[in-house]
Amino acid sequence: MIFNRYRRGLFITSFLAAPVILYLVYVISPYIQAFYIALTDWRGVTATPRLIGLENFQRLFNDNVFWQAVMHNGALLVLLPLITIVIALFFAFLLNVGGPQGVTGIRGSKFYRVIFFFPQVLAVAVVAVLFQQVFRPDGSGMLNGPLMALGMGPIGFLSDRDVAFWSVLAVMVWQAVGFYVVLFSAGLASIPKDMFEAAQIDGASRISLFFRITLPLLWDTVQVAWVYLGILALDVFAIVWVMTLQHGGPDRSTTVMAAEIYRSAFEHFRFGYASALGVVMFFFTVGFAILSLRLSRRERIEY
Questions:
Q1: How far is CA 230 from CA 72, 77, 105, 123, in A?
Q2: How many CB atoms lie within 10 A of CB 90?
Q3: pTM of whole model > 0.90?
Q4: pLDDT digits (tens, 9 = 90+) for 288-299
Q5: Which of 111, 64, 66 is nearest to 257 (CA)?
Q6: What are the pLDDT digits (tens) for 271-284?
């Protein structure tokens, strides 16, 4: 009996060993290396980097550009999940419960789901290049062209410090919202229609249906969406680097932590400093995920 139990344990362990080893080598090991490089002055050309302790972190916290990047990531962290989830919930509600009867979707809802999801099919770099053309500051721009035709001067969507950040945020919302429309639609489809019909019979309005039935029953999905969008806001790179002037401009008005990591490593060859930035962003991301899950925890509603 003991021998059979030992053989079964050995059999299970042999299957678990491979993924655990792969995880240690390709996930945990790079983290450890990044933490080590953050304590050095490595510039990518020496075989044995010199340890300098916490000097990179001291320089980092005295760097105004770093704090600009943190402020922009913080603003995205608040605005991107909030705006995206509100828009996605609104459209998902229309597509599933917003029809004439109040318990079915609007006509053509399946077609609209495909249209909303389409931006997810495009690579992020492609989206950035596409909106470079949309935001062009001359008559060939999709937005400035009609404005100039109406006699309204061109808007510097990517060249005006006061507008560039909001342009980046708008593109990120456009690119992300379709996925969450489909995600929330899947959650709504699992809610029994009887609940909506009973609420309507009792005289509930569409607003009441949303706040008293839809939102409470979708809360777990909203919680997951908030965490994913928050991580996206902290890790954003391609849209800022490809779309904006000076890769985070003008005058660092759209720069983010990931862009500064890339700039420090591959333009200034300060890999130790870039690793210190990466370590700080890692703890920001993990801290946000843990804090969000704890603050948004609530009793699960069964239906």
A1: 13, 5, 29, 20
A2: 15
A3: no
A4: 888 887 776 655
A5: 66
A6: 999 999 999 999 98
